[in-house]
Amino acid sequence: MIPFDLAEPKSLSEAVKLLDPDDATVRPIAGGTALMLMMKAGVFRPERLVSLRKIERKYSDISAGADGLRIGAMTTLNALERSADVRKHAPVITATMPRLSNVRVRNVATVGGALAHGDPHMDLPPVLMALGATLTVVGPKGERKLAVEELFSGYYETVLDKDELISEVHVPAQGSKKAAYLKVTTGSADDWPALGVAAVIDGDGKAIKSARIVASAATDKATRLKSAEAVLNGKSVSDDLLRQAGDAAAEEAEFIADVRGSVPYKRELMRVYVRRAVRAALNGNGAH
């Protein structure tokens, strides 16, 4: 790696002031698990990194209230996994964490970093999207709210300005909704997925009132599968209905080929795993 300057602001507002939207060599760094790999590979050559590790403690906290969960952007994935509040109010997140990379990465990587990096292979974004989560984003002009669903604009791309930082994630109260996340890997259980599917179902028995289905990894960004949702909404679950939803998802999604699979392979995975994710959510099976 080439030498670089490291700034360590004591507050989020100070960190924002140190970012320069016109200078691509200045980057914020939270856990750094992805950024440091990019730097070692020579993909990114920063002149200055703005570390967020010393900003206010509140941005590493998790709290629960009547309106749901509030998760500070500097919360580590390990803290997210171990939180009793998360386990109670959004157990699908807890169930997802053990297969999200390895424990050494989870000890360092942060929630905000996992979202801001824009990597379509990350497991957390599709889960948060399916749960209807929103973000608080801070920049020079103040705060703005943004649905996680609206964050990703392309392959490793987000709508965040270069002088904006995620400060908090809000997961709304789920009520009686049930959720599941399934990932398909071609390597170890915690490897990058060839496909990830998150499903959140509001229903009563076999009757589905509404569904949110999100796919990632097989696509260039985490993507809601609205045509599959439309097939499911207001219907009673059957094998034929789930087959229709899987087919709709396979037709709707824009697939990408990579070392984890071809487009036809991922399309067939989508057909199968949308069906399985909906079943898993209805059965309360969490994550696989």
SSE topology:
Layout: E1 5-7, H1 12-18, E2 26-29, H2 35-40, E3 48-51, E4 62-65, E5 68-72, H3 77-82, H4 84-89, H5 91-96, H6 103-106, H7 111-116, H8 124-130, E6 134-139, E7 142-147, H9 148-151, E8 152-154, E9 157-158, E10 165-172, E11 178-185, E12 193-204, E13 207-216, E14 223-224, H10 226-232, H11 239-252, H12 263-282, E15 286-287
Parallel strand pairs: 1-3, 2-3, 11-15
Antiparallel strand pairs: 4-5, 5-10, 6-7, 6-10, 8-9, 11-12, 12-13, 13-14
Helix pairs in contact: 10-11, 11-12
Summarize it.
With 288 residues, the chain is of the alpha+beta class. The protein has helices at residues 12-18, 35-40, 77-82, 84-89, 91-96, 103-106, 111-116, 124-130, 148-151, 226-232, 239-252, 263-282, and strands at 5-7, 26-29, 48-51, 62-65, 68-72, 134-139, 142-147, 152-154, 157-158, 165-172, 178-185, 193-204, 207-216, 223-224, 286-287.
What does this entry look like structurally?
With 288 residues, the chain is of the alpha+beta class. Helices cover 32% and strands 27% of the residues. A 5-stranded antiparallel beta sheet has the order 4-5-10-6-7. Strand 6 (134-139) and strand 7 form a beta hairpin. Helix 10 runs antiparallel to helix 11 and helix 11 packs across helix 12 (263-282). The longest helix has 20 residues, at 263-282. The model has no long low-confidence stretch (mean pLDDT 92).
